[in-house]
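Researcher: Quick sanity check before group meeting.
Model: Go ahead. Protein one:
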Amino acid sequence: MPYAVIRRYTLSAALFALAVSGLWLVARLLFVRRRWERRDWLRLAAVAYLAAVVQIIGLRLGLKPIRLLGGSIHLRPLQTTIRQWRKGRGAFLYHTAGNVAWFLPLGLLLPRLWPRCRWFHALLAGALLSFCVEACQYLLGTGMSDVDDILLNALGAWIGYGMDRRFRHPAK
């Protein structure tokens, strides 16, 4: 995928995240009658992150035309990943590293927002969020829904959780 397209998708996700988090912030200030807490910064970051993920993976507003039920589905595990491997290092890295990287923040945010979060919660949350945006992608026809994306996204959330555990609670 050309860098210009990646920049356009990233800018679109950032602007959508800014708009959604701005709306959340206004609603928070208008309707919640308690002082701003440190945890509210984490909530704001989570709202911005979730909005960016939904935009870049599922909605793609302004980037792709919406065609209801016009998406395609790939249900065979690792088929797309192997195809990307055969295309070359760039395609494989874009597919695998991109899918993992987009869900690292979820794994980092979950234990901070929910202290009782465990590794399997992060893995499950990554899979469920990914399934939801892949379903959105299929329903709106904005991309190809792929089981590999769900697996790699869940792996990204799990790695993010592991990073949080490693750096916030280092072994003695």
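Researcher: Fine. The other one?
Model: Protein two, sequence then structure:
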Amino acid sequence: MSVKLRLTRVGKTKQPYYRVVASDSRSARDGSFLEILGQYNPRLEPSVITIDNDKVVAWLMKGALPTERVKKLLEISGAWAQFTAARTK
């Protein structure tokens, strides 16, 4: 089973709100997930990104792969830098 870090859409019609989750790569976008790692709200100005960096780094160390959009969010939150620093030790 390969684990992906991806966005899951929640919210009402035309009011998207996303969760950053760790899920099985075979599950649907809004299907089952293993753990909620954070939230992303693109509708506010500036966009609100709340990510638990410790949980994200733990999943990345176990071999989870982020999607392109999630990787950008992790770079903004600082989790990606924390992961690369932990990986080089």
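Researcher: One line on it for the slide.
Model: The two ends are 27 Å apart (CA to CA).
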